[in-house]
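Sample pair:
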Amino acid sequence: MSFLTNPNVLIPTIGLTIQIIVLVLLVYGYWLRRKFMIPQHGRIMAWATALHLSTIFAIMLPSFVLVFIPEYITSHIEGIISLISLVHLQFGLVAISLGLWFAVSWRLRGLKGCFNRKKLMLIIMVLWLFTLLLGTALYSIFYWAALMG
């Protein structure tokens, strides 16, 4: 079975691909920050946050509500898939909330909105990377099995 012909595999694959693009944008934004290109860094991070939010609302939230809650959370709460998805949800909510707060504060307050917050930015990045790892684990559990079978 090809992932191009199966929308149940294609849509999550697109979502994961977009998250990898977000990761590339975050790394590029970090590189810009290291080169003291602060306004460009802020714009790239804002774009990464917007792209991430669009993926959450277009792909992740519908799949969580339509698949994970009825199939795994309510009927198999003790299972590893439920545990991974709930931890993924909690860490993801914190990461995107803080990332959105940073993007909005940068937009509203300019450079003053971000200086002296490097440690918090690092914490957000680590949270987001952990969430990406959990999301990739969920993708692997479901869709690699579907592609191989």
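The chain has a mean pLDDT of 83.
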